[in-house]
């Protein structure tokens, strides 16, 4: 029975003697885990920001094309086919921002598909496209504000 007490004392004594080393290891592991998580979060945020800025620029160019087609007297000379480039680019980047932005990009694609041919002549088509562009823009801006 004496040997068990010696073992217990010895384990307790060893923990006590090595407490600084044990605490150091726990702190090191915790710090490594946090640093890894923080780096992954930073990279994710960087990707979302880059994609968001590209989407916002493409939305602005699409808005300019739509406004020029409808409001400019030379709007009939605007090639609305160029809008497809922006629509597809937005759709390609949207999954890297969020699921909501992806869904809105799909809605923009559908709206563009339905209204692009009449956007220069019909105010309702023009307004539908403008609404879809603005909705996307607001959601991308909101996503950027929510980044950690």
From TrEMBL:
It comes from the Bacteria. Keywords: Membrane, Transmembrane, Transmembrane helix. The chain crosses the membrane at residues 20-37. This is DUF2489 domain-containing protein. It comes from Thalassotalea nanhaiensis.
């Amino acid at each position: 029975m004496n040997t068990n007490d010696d073992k217990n004392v010895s384990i307790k004594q060893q923990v006590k003697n090595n407490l600084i080393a044990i605490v150091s290891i726990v702190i090191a592991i915790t710090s490594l885990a946090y640093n890894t998580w923080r780096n992954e979060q930073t990279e994710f945020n960087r990707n979302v920001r880059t994609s968001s800025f590209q989407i916002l620029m493409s939305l602005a160019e699409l808005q300019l094309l739509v406004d020029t087609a409808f409001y400019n007297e030379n709007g009939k000379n605007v090639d609305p086919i160029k809008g497809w480039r922006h629509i597809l680019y937005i759709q390609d980047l949207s999954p890297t921002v969020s699921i909501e932005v992806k869904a809105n990009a799909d809605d923009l694609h559908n709206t563009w598909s339905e209204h692009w041919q009449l956007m220069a002549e019909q105010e309702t088509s023009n307004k539908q496209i403008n609404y879809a562009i603005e909705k996307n823009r607001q959601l991308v801006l909101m996503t950027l504000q929510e980044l950690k």
